[in-house]
Amino acid sequence: MNELIVLWWIVIIVLIVIGMVTLCFPILLIRLTRASVYRFELPLEEAMNKSISIDEKLFRHHILSGFLIFALSAVALYLLVFTLDLSRVSMQIRNNPFGWQSWLFESLLTIALLGAVLGVCAGLVMMLKPSLYKPLEIWGNRWITTTPESLLDRDLSGEVIEKWIVQHTRLFGVLVLLAAATIWLLVFTR
């Protein structure tokens, strides 16, 4: 419980600092947002437009890569089916006061089992007949460009919010301080 209180205090302090900085120095927020565009978005766009291909290496050694996929998936499947003590895990989950953990555990276990079975099948196909992957490889290797002209129909709601924050930095600072006060009232005053 003490760790949770410390976490809430850290969140409140960070929100207060952000709110005070945007109230006192609104131009700083504008400079930071402009710097982030040049520092992060432009190199990210260049990196996303580079083509990376491992197909030649993967299919040149298809027996080895298929065997590795098959073996690792088979080990995961064996561990999930035969060595996982479900009664012990379910007992620990029942003793926990939160109700969402049991369905989360069952969902994750189902996903892991399906992934392991799919991995065993994919490894066998890769090892024995890799030409079955040809249509999937053609579909997966199609080029998707990230140039601004191709992204005209994208969701711009984040950009609208960023522009509003830059235009109303003092109001944003007040809203952040109100959020910090609300969290403090909800968490620490009972």
Describe this structure in words.
- The mean pLDDT is 77.
- Helix content is 79%, strand content 0%.
- It has one domain.
- The two termini are 15 Å apart.
- It is built from nine helices and no strands.
- It is mainly α.
- α1 packs across α2 (26-48) and α4 (62-83) runs antiparallel to α6.
- The chain is flat.
- The chain has helices at residues 2-24, 26-48, 55-60, 62-83, 86-95, 100-128, 134-140, 157-167, 169-188.
SSE arrangement:
Layout: H1 2-24, H2 26-48, H3 55-60, H4 62-83, H5 86-95, H6 100-128, H7 134-140, H8 157-167, H9 169-188
Sheet with most strands: none
Approximately what portion of the residues adopt beta-strand conformation?
under 5%
What integer value in Å does the Rg equal? 26 Å
* Count of the separate structural domains: 1
Mean pLDDT: 77
List SSEs in N-to-C order.
Answer: HHHHHHHHH
Total beta strands: 0
Number of helices: 9
SS-derived structural category:
mainly alpha
Roughly how many Å apart are the termini? Answer: 15 Å
Helix content: over 70%
User: Unreliable runs, pLDDT <50, ≥5 residues?
Assistant: none
Key traits:
190 residues, 0% strand, mainly alpha, 9 helices
Task: Give a brief description.
This protein has 190 residues and is mostly helical. The protein is built from 9 helices and no strands.
